[in-house]
Amino acid sequence: MRAGADVGGTRADPAGGRRHRPRLGLEESTPLVHLERLRLADDRPLALDRVWLPASIGEPLLDVDFRRTSLYEELARTGIPVTGGQETVRAVIPSRAEHDALDLQPPSAVFSVERTGTSSGVPVEWRHTLIRADRFALTSTLDPRPGATEPPSGDLAASALTPSFG
User: What does pLDDT average to in each consecutive run of 10 residues of the chain (166 residues)?
Assistant: First the structure.
């Protein structure tokens, strides 16, 4: 698989992202930076990735060429490694524009991944990624350990999105 990205833009987003600030634990007046990328696999659309970062974190990245590097590599380079977070994955029908960007015939379902990434427990990014469901699979690994008990919530700890090029 050959990975790549078309970058739709990295820009300061002072007025936009109103609904994203609370997800980052930010005040309404906090400026944001928005990064949008179309992720490619073998030169074909795989995912539409939209990320919002507090401007204090994102502004040093405004001139980065994200076709050649990853956001997490650049955050680590600036001293803010993503060390944790939480994400929710669900199936959705994307908008017509999102169908077009992902080169899908409507109505096609995609994985919608909403993630809050943290650095040392502090939210540093909120992202919404739409992933072509025909090119990815969600795989969970269940790893019972001797003497381990199930978390009280019944949640299972390990899951990962993995490509399924089938």
Answer: 55 66 87 91 92 93 89 95 94 96 96 96 96 86 66 53 47
d(Cα 60, Cα 39) in Å, to the nearest integer? 22
DSSP codes of every residue in the chain: --EEEEEEEEEEESSS-TTTTGGGT--TT--EEEEEEEEEETTEEEEEEEEEEEHHHHGGGTT--TTSS-HHHHHHHTT----EEEEEEEEEPPPHHHHHHTT-PSS--EEEEEEEEEETTEEEEEEEEEEETTSEEEEE-----TT----TT---S-EEEEE---
Does the reported pTM lie above 0.85? no
Which residue type occupies 130? L
The predicted pLDDT at position 138 comes to: 77
